[in-house]
## 1
Amino acid sequence: MPAVVLGAVWSVEHPRWEAGALAPTDLAHGSPQSPLSGAQLANTAQLPSLPTTLAQAGLYRADAWGQLQEAAVVYVPQYPLWSDGADKKRWVVLPPHASIDGSQPDRWEFPVGTRFFKEFSVAGKVETRMIEKRADGSYGYAAYVWDEAETEAVLAAPAGEVVQGKRTYGEPYLVPAEAECRACHEGRTASPILGFGALQLSTDRDPGAAHADAPPDEAVDLRDLIERELLEGYPADSVAPRIGAPNPTARAAAGYLFGNCAHCHNAEGPLADIGLNFDQSVVDAQAYARLRAAALAPTELFQLPGETHARRAIPGDAARSAITLRMNSRSPITQMPPLGTSRVDTEGVRLISDWINSLQ
Amino acid sequence: MKLSLNSSIPALSSLALVALALLSAGCDPANAAPKAKGDAVVPSAPVAQASSAAATAPLTGAALGKKLVSTSACHDCHTPFKLGPRGPEPDMSRALSGHPEQLVMPPAPKLQAPWVMAAAGTNTAWAGPWGVSFTANLTPDPETGLGKWKKEHFIQTIRTGRHMGRGRPVLPPMPVPVYQNFSDEELGAIFEYLQTLPAIKNRVPEPVAPPT
């Protein structure tokens, strides 16, 4: 949704600390739709077609709209992505008789036809996103926008949409553009599925994780996936992996950075050269030490106001650390994450600040 | 009060480009006027190199990229302007290397509405409601340019309007929505051409957020 992004940066009175900082401005010509032209949209026209309604997408029963189909498996990652406080529900639907290849514990391979769904609610249901694995190994991304009555959800435009009304408390809500889906999900060379992996589904859930939701009884963890033969090749004695951090604050902080930042800040994607690897692992015992070292490394890319040098994390001084300063901003130039959020995650900032202040 | 520009980004970008000659370094509009019919005030040097032979066979790859770069105003911001004998002109010895790191900009001037933006005479630093932006080094220098970029990163940057397709917004006056009309093939050709340029080591400053 580049036009919306640019609209925000053109706003003369900058809404940097306000909710909805990335709201569309007059540049959207008063339309709730993104103003991308037909020619711009045409660049995605050759993609394989996606179901045009959520009813056709395979999450709910074909004969009973609103009732989950039997194959829909509920899961809750222990280190969830901050989405401006939206309530989220997640499901994976595997093809019949298919299973996930977990022989590489950090890099699961999903069978062709797998579909992941995530439902976002604010005051009411707003959108349900879907990722599907296609026969050629690529992934398709869709967002289905619910109507006010929550009776149907329709495929959003590839350029994204803006929803604003009672179900969003009157605040503009940005449904991502297809390119923005890829921006976050395709920041690694491995599978673009985020939030559904060994560490996220560990039976040893982190009690200090930010925004940790207690999983409902029907939610699966690693043990369940193995027992139900939905996950093959994964070492059965490793159902309780945890981050190898020295204390609970460090564990939760590393989990937060993994769940919220590592899809871009890793060692294999386009941003690998900046040397900020927040990935965590269920097999690499040095993952936390590596994350800590990366956070403490000097950086010259971002400068604190009025200073010529910046550090990502200054031990004992979170207030002057670039990581927390950028997490605490929603100025488009400065904010982290750079997309998918227009409100500061105060709980996340507090957690990361506690961690940086505890570092020696 | 919340003011926003009641116009489209492409239109604004066009306005910005039209304004370049008047905003350029030490440019006196009277002196900048063409001295003879047909003279270009702001020559984009590579335009003159487009050969008539190109019309007979479709251009591809870097050759296509060269033509697109030459005709799509890339030089107008990414090549620093200098004052030549006929007025401002792109300094082709620093072609497409972005805002010169030696040119440290003072704080942006305070503007009176409806003025909303200002530019350096080089056309490489721009101030507006978004803060201060500096045009990027598009040469293949590995440390300060696009030397470590892959074609897909370049395409994703234009497609998303975000740095490397996933970071901060690409800032005004870069006319991203205009360039989104390029196909992936055309964007890829532009990247191929940029990778053939002489690498120029020039570390462009990071953008500056607006004052709080």
Note: Residues 1-6, 12-46 of chain A have pLDDT under 50 and may be disordered.
## 2
Amino acid sequence: MFERDSRNATLPESSPLGVSLESRRSFLGISLGLGSVFVGALLSVPLIRFALFPLLRRTTQLKSSPVGELSEFSSLTEPVMRTIHIEQVDGWRTNVSEKVVYVTKDGQGQLRVLSSICPHLGCSVPWNKQRNEFVCPCHDTIFAADGTRVSGPSLRGMDALETSVENGQLQVRFQYFRQLVSHKEVIG
Amino acid sequence: MHSAGTTANNTPPPSESGVREWLNRRTGLDDLLHFTLDEPIPGGARFAYIFGSGLLFLFLSQVITGVFLALYYVPSADHAHKTVAYITKEVTAGSFLRSLHFYGASAMVVVLFLHLSQTYLYGAYKGRRELLWFSGCVLFGLVMAMAFTGYLLPWDQRAYFATTVGTNAMGEVPWIGESIKRLMRGGTEMGTLTISRFFVAHVFLIPAFIFALVASHLFLFRKAGAAGSVDENPYNPDRTRKAELFYPRQVIMDLSLTSLLIVGLGLLCFLIPVQLGARANPADTQYVPRPEWYYLPVFQWLKYWHGSAAIVGVLVIPALVVLAVIALPLLDRSVERRPWKRPVAMGAYAFLVFSLVGLGLRSRYLDRHDTGVAQQLAKQRAEEDDYMRKPFEPELSSASLAAANMTLNDPLAAKGKTIFQVRSCNACHGDGGVGTAAAPALTGIHQEFSPDQLANLFEHPTAKMKAGGMPPVDLAPDDMKALIAYIEHLVP
């Protein structure tokens, strides 16, 4: 391959200071090496920050969705159905989907927002006005107006969602829960 | 463990005195270092020789920043612009890295020009170094091709229209021009296939060729040896003349250019980050496209050639110039390397450089003095500034239900959607009827069944449907109509 040809290279035999050339060259080599490593490290900072962006900031996120004005629900007598838009941020895109929730009150008269997904096998549970209860169309699990289980194959009551109030707006954070278990467990 | 000393010639292993010694024995690292650093430079180190290593540094920087940018980039007309906006506006250090890649391309063109000029002016293409010159010419073309293909990828107005003009120029080539243009675009118009093609060329094809050619360029360089000073014979260099080793002085000189490039590019990216304009709008008839500065001379040149003379300007003259440049070591076989003894070569160089600079300046001058164009260009810059000020807007996924809802202007279908939800059809058939594990998708079902057939199926499900858990749907005729109207809107 290559023919090394340093025979003609002439170098000063010794330095005027009496320091050997070999040690001068290696000192320079070490300084240049260290300098290059330092500059290289400096240059890799933006690269590392760029690649670690998902660690530094949230890139995926389920945003809370507005359900309606708080005042709309002040004189609630039975659960009301609301269609909410849930926005799932996924990097540079968002998925918007619609979910049906029910706004109801618990035993203490506090507002509760229930997911309409049956904790049994995931059917949408509608409110039955005549019977004054939720009746799942798939396997006839019956839930009370506050979402607690009355009868049927479901192992738990309807799932209440995390709520908050912002500027008089009722907000809800939609989540999915594991089906066929007796305790509420977030999935996804 | 081994049993020691069983045979007489069981010599002990050489003592491994330190990691470096061991590593060297295994890899030959010292020889490699010696080979790279102790390259003889006849006539001594010079600042004139620093451009090659500067180019190598820039190329590596482009490769690294390019790989990182690909972490977030998506090459499709739907997403390219959105993902570049995400890189520029959201990702930490994204604007900086994109700027580094963008300005790095310009810097490569500049340093490449300097490298080429130095080689030319010092007569270093002559004699035994002709293959080195050929591979350098190919590399020049490849770098320009990288600049051309990379420019489109952000898919903003500037990129889109510059590339439209660039590919149109290919169409001017007689006979095969139209085919070349279509091949480059992946069709008659610019579109998502164009991005795919440019992306593949920019990220896989051209870089592979560049890697191969850089390797052969370096190999040929070491094989032929450094050109040395201008009074050296290019065919049979005097091997007995004084030579300085590459390390340390030339290394330090080379590093000074690299440092200058790092500081210069770093400052540029920090102070004037590269802009991104609004997403390409092919319907925009007002947009005045302008290429990046290094393509301005070609752009201006092509303006002069139209009609029957086009073949001369678009094909014959450029082809002759390119061929003359490539064939230089064959055309100019004289031993003379001193610039002051080569008036023809120097004259040709000055003519070419002045022509290129002149054409570029002429293009700028015309743009500034045509009020219509100047106003439009200013407007385009203002639009880019506007777009940069806007916060990042994520792209609404097309699979997303809201996207489907927006097209649901039919009030009957909208009513049907409410029924679909209240009746819990979505419980099993999924939101938007996309289907779940429990029940099949309803999208496109209206193409198989007439509305009456659908209504009949919903009211009287077949035995198979019943077995799958489908209950009979009991609706007033108007509601059934609405539900079916909604189902007719469902798209996969």
Note: Strands of chain B lie at 40-42, 243-245, 395-396.
